[in-house]
Automatic annotation (TrEMBL):
Swiss-Prot/TrEMBL keywords: Chaperone, Hydrolase, Nucleotide-binding
SMART domains referenced in this protein's UniProt entry, alphabetically: CobW_C (SM00833)
Reaction equations catalysed: GTP + H2O = GDP + phosphate + H(+)
Protein name from the UniProt record: CobW family GTP-binding protein
């Protein structure tokens, strides 16, 4: 096992806090060099831009879900990484919130080259304490992500009462009694509890999914979930955009699983970043635009039955 590069697969439903955890890991003074592979659902890459960039290189795969069409991409990226001089201390793969972690984990057993050079260290699943009960009703992926976890981060504990938290934990334990569980706020788990765990347990996974090591694993996505992305090659007027966004999130709330965006405002040197889960939105001005960056505005909404045309029209009407 020694000499193989540990791979951490970071999973969890849309908006649970995966990027928050990833940024926490990357910001710690651990002196290690990580390669980060981000896969997101949606035509426009936003997560890539939200990952704190220090020495890490972020590889983005946003052409579909890592658990299906882009497994070949994942293999190619890892292959490329292995050929580099200097190497890495670890690889972190952040999957889309809609990914089933099984096929992602499978990649590290199926491809011989990948298998010889890497080892799957742990599947870390971030769970949103606020919305889990709903997700267990409407999202089979959320259940699978919990079932596959070696480490569970029960996040957003600030948004529930102690009684609700107990109930959420009970429901998680009914699905996965084995994984180490950490309660967290803003994904504040010690990094040592997440990385280098040597926790991935193939035998346990074969119990859950006996055909795990067989080719041709099939699964179905929730086809009714779609993503609507709009890019504007310039700034938007905040006085028009922000009231529309708030209103839209309130109206579409139940069907709107995730929203995020990076915006340029006229005369503002900093990027405005917003994020939301259902009707709860959060946004602020963050770092300055870099000289080599195009001051464009991009937004992504992921949900059920979203009116693509109406969203596009509304966002474009805010362009200045
Ligand atoms: N109140 C609260 N908000 C949190 C917490 N952790 C993360 N958030 C916020 O929740 C939103 C989603 O967090 P992300 O880390 O982007 O979630 P994600 O799982 O990477 O989202 P996707 O990549 O879209 O699936 C952001 O606005 C975070 O600031 C928490 O513990 N409490």
């Amino acid at each position: 096992m020694s000499g193989k590069i540990p791979v951490t697969v970071l999973t969890g439903y849309l908006g649970a806090g995966k990027t928050t955890l990833l940024n926490r890991i990357l910001s710690e003074p651990h002196g290690k060099k990580f390669a980060v592979i981000v896969n997101e659902f949606g035509e426009v890459g936003i997560d890539n831009d939200l990952v704190v960039g220090a020495d890490e290189e972020v590889f983005e795969m946003n052409n579909g879900c890592v658990c299906c069409t882009v497994r070949g991409d994942l293999i190619r990226i890892i292959d490329g990484l292995m050929k580099r001089k200097g190497g890495f201390d670890g690889i972190i793969v952040e999957t889309t919130g809609l990914a089933d972690p099984a096929p992602v984990a499978q990649t590290f057993f199926m491809d011989q080259d990948v298998q010889e050079r890497t080892r799957l260290d742990a599947v870390v699943t971030v769970v949103d304490a606020r919305w889990l009960a709903l997700r267990l009703q409407d999202a089979p992926e959320a259940r699978n992500q919990i079932a596959f976890a070696d480490v569970l981060v029960l996040n957003k504990t600030d948004l529930v009462t102690p009684g609700e938290l107990e109930e959420v934990e009970r429901r998680i334990r009914a699905i996965n009694p084995y994984a180490k569980l950490h309660r967290a706020q803003n994904a504040n788990v010690p990094v040592a509890e997440v990385l280098d765990r040597n926790a991935f347990d193939l035998d346990r996974i074969l119990d859950i999914e006996p055909d795990f090591l067989e080719e041709g694993h099939h699964h179905h996505h929730n086809d009714d979930i779609q993503s609507v992305a709009v890019t504007i090659e310039g700034a938007v007027n905040p006085d028009r955009f922000l009231p529309w966004l708030n209103d839209f999130a309130q109206r579409a709330g139940a069907d709107l699983l995730r929203s995020k965006g990076i915006l340029a405002f006229p005369g503002e040197p900093r990027r405005f970043v917003f994020q939301g889960v259902h009707m709860m939105l959060d946004g602020d001005l963050q770092r300055e635009w870099r000289d080599d960056e195009k001051r464009a505005s991009k937004v992504v909404f992921i949900g059920r039955g979203l009116d693509r045309d109406a969203i596009e029209r509304a966002v474009k009407a805010c362009a200045v």
